[in-house]
Amino acid sequence: MTATANDQRTGRAVAGEELFQSLAHFVVVHNDQTPERAERIADQAVAFLVTAATATVPMVPSDDVDLGLHALILHTKEYTELCDRYAGRFLHHNPKPGGGARDPEQVAASARAMKTVGFMVFDDLWTVDGANLAQCDADCGRPYGQA
């Protein structure tokens, strides 16, 4: 049975409205995104974290989702609480040694993993055509949560 949009989980619901609004605001202010796009990015970042907690595939965010993930990590208390609740441990955000672009297959697999566990996924934030896979200073494509 295919889930409808109403059946799907959202990162917003998991985060709660106060944290969600704070994340979206951070993405607007620090990443020059529109409020609407920032909300979608924040939603996907929380969904990504929850999925990464138990994923069986290496989880790698797109550049867009990584903006929200960085905002979430900077909310240290709430980030730690989400890690504890969903993973039972702290999930470290480890830069890939030496840098390098994200692996498009791992980015796509991450989005599929989120869909598999029931999260709504905004496909346009998970591009895998190379346009959204540039190197960044904090993640650089190393699978999330791995030591």
Describe this structure in words.
The chain has 6 helices and no strands. It has 147 residues and is mainly α. The longest helix is centred in the first third of the chain and has 18 residues, at 35-52. Mean pLDDT is 85; it is low at 132-141. Helix 2 packs across helix 4 and helix 3 packs across helix 5 (76-87). The radius of gyration is 14 Å and the shape is globular. Helix content is 51%, strand content 0%.
Helix content: 40-55%
What structural category do the secondary elements indicate?
mainly alpha
Major beta sheet summary: none
**Dominant shape:** globular
The radius of gyration is 14 Å
Number of continuous helical runs? 6
Approximately what portion of the residues adopt beta-strand conformation?
under 5%
Compute the separation of the termini in Å: 36 Å
- Tell me, rounded to a whole number, the average pLDDT: 85
List unreliable stretches of 5+ residues. Answer: 132-141
Task: Give the H and E element order.
Answer: HHHHHH
What is the tally of beta strands? 0
Secondary structure blueprint with pairings:
Blueprint: H1 11-15, H2 17-31, H3 35-52, H4 63-74, H5 76-87, H6 104-116
